[in-house]
Amino acid sequence: METASRDGRRYGGASAVERHADRRERLIRAAIMLYGEQGYRRTTVNAVCRAAGLTPRYFYEAFDNSEALLLATFGEVTHFVTQRVAAAADAAGGTPEDRLAALLTAYYDLLRDDPASARVFLLELSGIDPRVDALFAGSMAAFADLIADTLAPGRGSDATEPLCQAGAMHGLLAVARDWVARGCKEPIVEVVRIAEPLCRMLVKSDSNSVV
């Protein structure tokens, strides 16, 4: 087994940077699990460290405080969700409406099958910190752009009126939160049917011929 060099760069085949990245990822994974089980506000730094099998020393090596961990956790969940739903839309092919249905189906599949990540994505971010609010607003805008580009390829943010974006995204968020809170009782195909008209609000009327 490889041991550490005098400057401590490698131990057991892993560099200091790699070990730091591994510990950081373990903390994020533990946080997602605990936020899903009991919520962010009831999750302490010590609890995250115990779940990750690490001491608080390593927590503060990776994050300044619990809010910084929440930001990192939300960023990772958002990246994962966005990549999955975009890939589903691309794989669906067909018309823009076909791709939208595939995107929404993948989104609700993720919310149903990974409730811990769903709680981070939907429920844990309101009123905690201005940085958290800004990150959530940015993620909502990026998701709106993804949906708009699915319905009107190449139009980007030009396809969306600001008030329509606000109404559509808050409506989609309300549908998802209520569906998850009640145990995902309705079939996904029904939730998609309800969500599709909200998504169409993201595309200006003069581009309706595209969809």
Q: Mind explaining what this structure looks like?
A:
The protein is mainly α and 211 residues long. The chain has nine helices and two strands, in the order E-E-H-H-H-H-H-H-H-H-H. It has helices at 16-38, 45-52, 56-62, 66-92, 96-113, 115-122, 130-151, 162-181, 188-200; strands at residues 10-11, 14-15. Strands 1-2 form a two-stranded antiparallel sheet. A hairpin with a 2-residue loop joins strand 1 (10-11) and strand 2. Helix 1 (16-38) crosses helix 4 (66-92). The longest helix has 27 residues, at 66-92. The termini are far apart. Residues 1-8 and 207-211 have low confidence and may be disordered.
How many H/I helical runs? 9
Widest sheet, order of strands: 1-2
Structural class category: mainly alpha
Low-confidence stretches at least 5 residues in length (pLDDT < 50)? 1-8, 207-211
Order of helices and strands: EEHHHHHHHHH
Strand content: under 5%
Largest sheet: 2 strands, antiparallel
Quaternary organisation: single chain
Q: Can you give the helix content as a percent range? A: 55-70%
What is the C-alpha radius of gyration, as a whole number of Å? 20 Å
Distance between the termini: 59 Å
Nearest-integer average pLDDT: 85
Kindly state the number of beta strands.
2
Backbone shape: elongated
In short:
This protein has nine helices and two strands. The chain has 211 residues and is mainly alpha-helical. It has a two-stranded antiparallel sheet with strand order 1-2.
